[in-house]
Amino acid sequence: KAKGRPSIHGEGDETAEAIKADLKTMETIHTFGWYLRKYGSEAKTRGATVILLSKVPHKDWRDGKIVRERDQATFATWTRHAAEATGTLYGDANGVISDGYERLGPHNVTPLFGDARTHMNADGARYNAAGIVATLRTIPHNPLAIYFSPVADHLPPSLTP
Fold this sequence. Notes:
Strand order of the largest sheet: 1-2-3
Low-confidence stretches: none
Largest sheet: 3 strands, mixed
Oligomer: single chain
Distance between the termini: 46 Å
Number of helices: 5
Number of strands: 7
Order of helices and strands: EEEHEEEHEHHH
Structural class: alpha/beta
Mean pLDDT: 91
Strand content: 5-15%
């Protein structure tokens, strides 16, 4: 039994029983990937254009590089697989922002975080928001591209190839 857990790690069809936040009732939860496939498929059937983005990276350095989630069976991989399975658009925010962090280097990335490795401060949030725009710009035939403001033309140099 999982307590207060929103999903099971993975992308299969496994389920588990979890105690709801009210701590009184149970619910069936599915894997992270299952939920993304469900959201993507249901939104597409309603006429939405779905774009799934991998999550932003943690500040985990190994041998001078940010540890990439795409190299592991984790949220970024599960998100990409869900996009492939549902025929939705996908953007590798984890990769784009990791590339940006590496161009900045650890000394310049550390001040963007409000804690040891996960949560950004206001400057970091702005950097990651710019990273999301940079990621969206990498998606071929992205229907959102017509809505980018002129600010999108002036992303931080570390986020541009």
